[in-house]
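Note to self: the last two entries modelled the partners one at a time, which told us nothing about the interface. This time every component goes in together.
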Amino acid sequence: MAMTQELYQKAMKFAGEKHFDQKVPGTNANYLLHISNVAMEILVAYNNKPDFDIDFAVQTAILHDTIEDTTCDYSEIEIEFGERVAKAVQALTKDKVLPSKKESMLDSLTRINQLEKEVGMVKLADRITNLQSPPGYWNQKKIINYQEEAVIIVDSLQDKNEYLESRLRAKIEAYKQYIA
Ligand code: NI
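The predicted structure of the combined assembly is written out below.
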């Protein structure tokens, strides 16, 4: 099953319009830099082993931060991309009502695990993409915390995709260079 390029383009246009005024933290780059990197990880995973629904995974990857970071809501995604994608993006969205960042993350991981493996794959791809050199303004505590979160993510999302899982484990190892 090949990827439908038109679905990719439609989701990219939607994400580009929603994230129009958002930058990647610590850079001057538009947020589509992050979005395209997450989509790229999914495409490379598919190239490695095409054993998942690439259209579903790529749309979810491109839209994964729209509800969390923009004015976009669940129903808008459902109308444009269908219920399956909307549910996936919702699961990848942290519930800001919960008392701590950690609880929000664990709650999101629980909801991700209730859906298809592609949703967990997008979470793995997201953290792989984010484990680059940390923004200059982050302190050691924040950097250590970010690495510890990544360990929880990879341990919570086992058996979603072997390739992305091992790639995230390698990124976690490499991230140790930023910890003094
Ligand atoms: Ni993200």
